[in-house]
């Protein structure tokens, strides 16, 4: 690395390139040859680092422009579509305003009304979907909105110049207005569903900095940190911040106080990536019997840690959030209601009653076996939340389909607990229609608890 670059010379060449790219101004062009020459690395090393930067969202490769530095989007802003994504989705051509393609849009407006009526709906950051109406194109651009022209009509040169001047794209698609609106609406809806899924990176962003140790620290240093923090498990990182091991109270048993941690720590510990679902991290913790997970990037550099309590709190919070989009499971369960029937004085039986919709049919015209399996699994999930007061992940599912269930028939699903344990629970779920028992499932679940 050249002097005065401000890049830590102790970093690897790969890390130096990423650090140099991060320092570039947004909009700067990047080439493999220039990076390789300025940092004294091979073009192969530069190419790999630039690709990693693209994966990390720091750069973008654009047709006819090349690779440029872009503003890294947080997960929150990534929920929104950009004009570029819309252009790719509708197989559109850009006629001016290319520099604004990476701007996000918060809504789209269909220009199927008179301009005077349309005005109230168009504002900055929106997208006007309209045909060959130049007056509408101009007004949208002047209000800070992008334009999607349907039917393949190309805008005039004046409109292209205005789009370039305002850095707002005009996208031309051969599809009709209804088709492109359906495409965009579906994409926005899918992203609303993704917003419901809490990732490990969401927890790390809110958590305190991780308490760490170095391989050259002693067992005495570990014990002092354990007393100070009240914790008993810490990641051990090397001089580059990469996870080298995990030090726990169990590792310290019978070890001399002056022994260095690299001799007693647990090597190759289980770690987790930031972009996995919190539920997956919970399953890993439960199955492996661990209470703390280091969160690392693809080079095993420590980003933070998550505890089992962090994960459980996040799952409870996510479960209370308002529904912003329906998944397939939501759609299948829609219309089912919970009933309970007291049997004797001690036992309370829960049942779930609903109707089989035409969309639930399989290839033979009766209710799909996959739908029935999904419904029985969801019935078990809701039941165990009532009787067990906790969440779980499914470990095994055995289904029995005794006879076909007809479309439009009413069914009753009855879950029963065979065994409720602290770690594992076993349930059975029966499905009955007007003719009696039709299907049954035996489900083993793994409890996610503190």
From TrEMBL:
Gene3D superfamilies, per the entry: CBS-domain (3.10.580.10), Hotdog Thioesterase (3.10.129.10), HprK N-terminal domain-like (3.40.1390.20), Winged helix-like DNA-binding domain superfamily/Winged helix DNA-binding domain (1.10.10.10)
SMART domains: CBS (SM00116)
Upper taxonomic lineage: Bacteria, Bacillati, Bacillota, Bacilli, Bacillales
Domain CBS: 206-263, 265-324
Coiled-coil zones: none
Keywords: CBS domain, DNA-binding, Transcription, Transcription regulation
PROSITE patterns: CBS
Organism from which the protein derives: Paenibacillus curdlanolyticus YK9
Protein name per its UniProtKB record: Putative signal transduction protein with CBS and DRTGG domains
Alphabetized InterPro entries for the sequence: CBS_dom, CBS_dom_sf, Diverse_CBS-Domain, DRTGG, HotDog_dom_sf, Ser_kin/Pase_Hpr-like_N_sf, Thioestr_dom, Tscrpt_reg_HTH_GntR
Gene Ontology MF: a single term: DNA-binding transcription factor activity
């Amino acid at each position: 690395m050249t002097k005065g670059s401000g890049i830590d010379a102790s970093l690897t060449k790969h890390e130096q390139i990423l650090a140099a790219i991060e320092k570039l101004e947004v909009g700067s062009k990047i080439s493999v040859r220039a990076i390789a020459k300025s940092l004294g690395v091979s073009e192969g090393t530069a190419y790999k680092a630039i690709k990693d930067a693209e994966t990390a969202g720091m750069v973008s490769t654009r047709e006819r422009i090349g690779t440029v530095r872009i503003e890294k989007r947080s997960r929150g802003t990534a929920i929104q579509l950009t004009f570029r994504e819309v252009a790719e989705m509708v197989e559109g051509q850009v006629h001016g305003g290319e520099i604004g393609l990476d701007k996000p849009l918060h809504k789209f407006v269909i220009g199927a009304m008179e301009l005077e009526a349309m005005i109230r709906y168009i504002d900055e950051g929106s997208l006007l979907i309209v045909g060959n109406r130049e007056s509408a194109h101009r007004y949208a651009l002047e209000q800070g909105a992008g334009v999607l022209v349907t039917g393949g009509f190309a805008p005039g040169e004046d409109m292209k110049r205005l789009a370039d001047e305002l850095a707002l794209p005009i996208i031309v698609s051969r599809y009709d207005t209804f088709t492109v609106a359906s495409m965009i609406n579906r994409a926005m809806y899918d992203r609303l569903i993704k917003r419901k899924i809490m990732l490990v990176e969401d927890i790390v962003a809110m958590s305190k900095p991780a308490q760490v140790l170095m391989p050259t620290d002693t067992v005495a240093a570990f014990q002092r940190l354990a007393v100070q923090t009240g914790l008993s498990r810490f990641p051990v990182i090397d001089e580059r911040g990469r996870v080298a091991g995990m030090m726990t109270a169990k590792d310290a048993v019978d070890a001399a106080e002056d022994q260095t941690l690299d001799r007693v720590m647990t090597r190759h510990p289980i770690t987790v990536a930031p972009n996995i679902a919190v539920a997956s991290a919970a399953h890993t913790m439960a199955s492996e019997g661990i209470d703390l997970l280091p969160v690392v990037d693809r080079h095993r550099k420590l980003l933070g840690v998550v505890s089992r309590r962090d994960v459980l709190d996040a799952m409870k919070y996510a479960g209370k959030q308002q529904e912003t989009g329906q998944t397939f499971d939501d759609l299948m369960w829609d219309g089912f209601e919970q009933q309970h029937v007291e049997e004797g004085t001690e036992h309370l039986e829960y049942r779930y009653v609903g109707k089989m919709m035409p969309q639930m049919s399989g290839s033979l015209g009766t209710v799909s076996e996959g739908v029935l399996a999904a419904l029985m699994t969801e019935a078990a999930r809701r039941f165990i939340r009532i009787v067990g007061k906790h969440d779980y992940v499914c470990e095994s599912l055995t289904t029995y389909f005794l006879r076909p269930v007809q479309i439009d028939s009413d069914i009753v699903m009855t879950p029963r607990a065979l065994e409720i344990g602290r770690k594992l629970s076993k349930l059975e779920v029966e499905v009955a229609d007007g003719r009696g028992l039709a299907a049954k499932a035996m489900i083993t679940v793994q409890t996610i608890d503190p």
